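INFO batch 0412 | record 1 of 1 | parsing
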Amino acid sequence: MHNEFTAIIERDGKWYIAYSPEVPGANGQGRTKVAARKSLAEAIELILEDRRKDALRGLPSTAIRETVTVG
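INFO prediction complete | emitting tokens
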């Protein structure tokens, strides 16, 4: 799955912190901007995976599941 999200990266002392306004709760950190961005990407991936599992839990057997592509 390929998606693009905004990464906001700020310096906090010797660390960089990152978050994405499109994915509440997704945060990353690292000693470099690259590490913070990678950490954020991993957090986004985990959150979306968890939300997908939650959404599919308990669906009736008659529900139709399809994929939709945006942009």
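INFO post-check: The mean pLDDT is 93.
INFO record closed
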